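#random but structural
TW: two for the price of one
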Amino acid sequence: MTVEEMVALVKANLKIEDDSRDLTITDVIQEVLNFCNLMEPPAELEPFIRRKVKAIIDYEAENSNTVFDVQSIREGDVSITYNTNEVSRETIYGLSDKDKKALMRFRRLRR
């Protein structure tokens, strides 16, 4: 399956009709391909990529008007607490340990 076919399949399954998320979907696919050392995505990776893109869309919708990764701000003696939980910006946009574990069965050795 080509990257373009995977993008179209993910968009169809998420019911995305415009091109506004093409870059996000392509970025997720490329990150998965890089981690797995693959040239083209197998069809079996579509559910993983779809869930990852959906998580990004949901995260952006929920946090669109706030500063990313700031959990709390206290003004008296200035204290800023950052969100370093499992659901941080880096784990949403990148591959978390859980994601890497799920992708291990698709991973190939480099030649």
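TW: number two ↓
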Amino acid sequence: MPRPRLVLRMLLPGAILAGVACASQPTGRPPVPHSAYSVQLELGQRDVIQAGEEYARNNAFLLSESRDAVEIRPNYWRVRFGLANKPGRGLELEFDELARRVTRAQEIEILPGELPNPGQGGSGLSVPNAIQ
């Protein structure tokens, strides 16, 4: 059987947090939820960037911190990364979100520190394990 002091010690932090939350003043306006589409888009963007990073690691690409993902049509993304060991070069992937696979990959030219605009092309360098 639990000791009363132990039970109080475990319940006290939760009670304090609940009291603070209830004590805050209302703003007088109803909360506005985020658009379901914008939340879904942001989550999808994070997922495809992570999948692109994994693809790059599996194919020995060293990525910089530069990255961008744009949904070019429903469930189909263009993901771009800067290459850490090749200034002025980047990796562009096209990713099918439903199939969870890279459908096209190429190394592209970019300005140092910037990712290219969606309309810019690349060198067309073939990248392993990508369907051209």
